[in-house]
Prior knowledge:
The complex is a heterotrimer of chains A (about 550), B (about 325) and C (about 350). Chain A is mainly α and about 550 residues long.
Amino acid sequence: MKPAGSNEVFSIKSRLRRLKRDTNRWSILTLAIVLFIALPVIAIAVKLLEGPGETWWHLVDNLLADYIGNSVFLIFGCSILVLIMGVGCAWLVARFEFPFRKQLEWLLILPLAIPSYIVAYAYAGVFDYGGSLNLILRFLDFEFIRIDIMNKFGLAFVLSISLFPYVYVSSRAFFLNQAGNLLEASTMLGVGEFKSFFKLMLPLARPAIVAGLVLVLMEVLNDYGAAQYFGVNTFTTGIFRAWFSLEEPETAVYLSALLISMVFALILFEKWQRRNMQVTGNKASRHIHRKVGAPLMQWFRFFLVLIPVLLGFLIPVAQLIYWAFLTAHKVFDLNFILLSLQSFGIALITAIVTVLFATLLIYFAKWSSVKGIKSISKLGILGYAIPGAVVAIGIMIPTLTFDKWFINIMDTVFGIETGFLINGTLVALVYAYSVRFLAVAYNPIESTALKVSDSIPDSSKMLGVGNFKTFFKIEFPLIKTGILSAIILVFIDVLKELPLTLILKPFHINTLAVKAFEYASDEMVMEAAIPSLFIIFTATIPVIFLNRLLIKE
Amino acid sequence: MLSINSISKSFDKGKNFALKDVSFQVKEGAVCAIVGESGSGKTTLIRLIAGLERPDAGSIVLRGKELSSVKKLVAPEKRKIGLVFQEYALFPHFDLLKNVSYGISNLKNKKQRALEMLDLVGLSGLEKRYPHQLSGGQQQRVALARALAPNPSLLILDEPFSNLDAMLRMQLRNQVFEIIKKTGVTAIFVTHDTQDALSVADEILILQNGKVIQKDQASNLYTKPNSVYVASLFGNTIQLNQELQTAFDCPLNADCCHAIRNESLSINKECEYVTHARVLKKTFMGNTTHLLLKLDNGHQISVVTQDDNVADHIKIGFNSTDVLEFAT
Amino acid sequence: MKKLILTVFSISVLFSCKNSDKKDEAETGASTEQEVNVYTHRHYESDQELFKKFEEKTGINVNIINASADELIQKMTMEGEQSPADVLITVDAGRLERAKSNDLLQAVSSDILEEKVPSHLKDANDYWFGLTKRARIIAYAKDRVEESELSTYEDLASDKWKDKILIRSSSNIYNQSLMASIIVHDGEEEAKKWAAGVVENMARSPKGGDRDQIKAVVAGEGDLAVVNSYYVGKMLNSNDTEEVETAEKVGLFFPNQDGRGTHINVSGAGVAKYAPNKENAIKFIEFLISEDAQKVFAHSNYEYPVNEKVSSAPQLQEWGEFKEDTLNLSKLGENNKKAVILFDEAGWK
Lengths: 553, 328, 349
């Protein structure tokens, strides 16, 4: 039975009237942030309208199948490896007690501190002719077995080993915080360890696992350095080729569009798999009581967990340290320390700015009364899906227009000659980083924000306190671990970021990642070891801190 | 004092209405209960009043000030309405004193007023405690103190007792409404439990499927329900359909709908309308006994009685004055 | 929160002002501090030394932005008239030619440059000048290949090298330039056939850098590697004794000595079209061509100097004199895109 008045209440006229009523400053501010963040994407989309370049069909005929094939291979290959390592280790450290568990628990996060292209360099060095493995085998008087790692299998390995912590962290958080009661219930029902894991824990942890996995796959699709070095053609290397070798930004933009649609498909998949999972303010669940087990099993578990730590952190770092000893006298000087400080500073500023944007975006959208705004606000995080180099170019298009306009105005109206206000300054760089890494900040903040029941801020409002004050007094203290994690994650990502920095960094500033890449791209991989180690070192400290934070939570 | 005028709200662009054309008034100082099953729109209604939802049509006026209409919305923080959430929603990182003083805008007397409020709800001395250190009932009272502290024009309580067990519930219900009466604040509370509503509300509003079914004083609702639904909310009710009318031999006005309350049925007593019945099943429930009866004409009904010692064959009947009549 | 935004904003404005101040001063010439802004793809320690020397000698500050040539060209294109770039340095002529055709460079008249840079190593209209030369040579496994079996680049496509050739990806500019030179000398049809033939002969799908190709030869994955001369020089002088030993195990061969000569490429520089410090830019390039600077290039980086008065590093002299292809390097740039397309069509990864 349809009420008689429903047509009138939902006529276009009354809808528009309500839209006008509901549009508040938060709606407009949300739109403004989204627009600001989406500007490079829009600039690229406009380029898309110009049509593909003449070599587009050449690419389609000769290379596209290869790009798609390799990218799909990497998606599946990395998914499998990352799931086995990430979820497996998370379960082992959450469920069992074994020697050095506490140390391994945070060591497992450390691969995040190494950029995947550096892992690639290190492994190429390990397996190389005359490489470390060769030396060790020769020392042990064994025949040298040449393992070729520079192919798509090797690439899948290198990417997985450096990215699996995303899945490890998200699934471990689930196991630690939410699995205790359920697991007890399952044990009470007499269900065995294996069955409990596969039938109960795995399906329940799925949203957490997939959320981590989607992050991994985005990084996989974005990778340029490692794929380039290993000679595997992917969409991203294709974009660089079209843009720079073929000089056709239009074609590169078309490839980017294809890549972005792949990422969209991933995001939609993640949404779809979460559709029935109600996110609730989780009542603190009992912690899992860790099983101890027989000594032999304990050591067996220890070795299982040690493998990813060895592969993802200790071996590459050992290789880098070896190289660093060979090249320290050439690379390490005062300038280098200055460079490190710059890197550190830029990463910190960016992390704060990006987290600020993410927080504003989340809360403005929340405070906005218009229904569609929330979905629109999600568009703000899509920068993560776009390769760094493409973001950089996307930033340059609109900001240069602005800069040129600004210079013109200053010149003609005030007679002052100025330089670029945005381009070639930290503004452009930080802006680009923010666009790229907003999602990195958005996710942890959003997930902690979701844990705060709406009724808490609503109570504050009902007590006559406005949105901003409510945020600072009530919500901020409750989500500060999320904010801190966000700052740390962005900090690390900026420290590791390469292609975007290469294009947008100001004159007098350099970063460790750029330095490492410069060396490596000029086949001075050994010299790249020291800046790489500095990145790893600077990123390791916050990673350990982040781990403390997650455990406390 | 509070006036709700033709409020409608749909969450799916008019396909279904959570609230449809709801209007009512609440007098100054009155306690009004909104009763309905889950999904009846009662929570939506109070969220609209609080300003946490926006109406699709209609308006809400409080003390002559228009709070919500299709043209205008007053932000929730400017409405001067106190809201006690079902889950209390205390600020977990504040102690009780800070929780209660949070909404008090007068800086000078902030602490004093908060302590007074804590005293009012019987929690003085606990101001340094944190919410997680309190029992459910204590949390409930803190939430009440917090909502009352800024002196709201209207107090709304959403399912205030649903998270508590039966004993505590009764005790707390009386305490809470004593406090409310003491402060003289106009209050609306939402419940699915008619016992709550009957015991403390001056007026009761019945919502079903987003529509107001009946609004009246508590006693009137019991004696003069305007539908079988309302009648059944306040106790076990048997609808007198054609078959039952024949069984009891009581021809009633065919244009109306009729029902009889369980408690109006008498067993083995003289009544206007009587029939014989066989007890098919007896279920002992402590202070009552549930009977499944098979009437002479083969019709089965369930009846509740205080008497736990009923014979297998009984006489059952009622008087015409107890018959509830509703327009169809 | 607003304060934070303000702070970040003002910091960045400070940065931008710093840049613009300098630029103003340079333009008005009234400055006490002169500067030259260099966009360079080269990132060697020796370059840093040279820049320091230039600063000491002239008092002109050198500001560096380091990135790949492609990115620098994109950046300059977008910056347009406001670009702060004075000098563009790349590691191959093709990219300089591209910068020229994208209207990013300007012609320079300098007697010094005219005199010291051989004509095939600079742009015909003086838009850019070569700084250092690298030869694309063949490194072969001494134990499996006789030097007499080697002859030309074209020969690499012949059946006898089936599964023996190691060469890096076609996205590498040195390969693109080599391909461009083959297009010019042999024609498009032949070039495509050649590429297909080399792909057929590859010992493995292309990967890694030039050093990796040499290591693969020594590891026995193939017999021939096509590499840049200066990488061999660097390997022979590496800190890593393993690398030195590896490099010592290969023989070096300069192809096409009986014909047009070995394909060479240059690292070169041009003055940006909208250079705010044009005079300094010219001084800077002139300095890089000077005997002093050329010596540094030659001795620290194992590149062949462009300035004929300067002798090569002893390491390079050991390899002996060779005949170089005197094709004007502008041709490489002109044919670069065609080269990439032909590579793709031939299935050269």
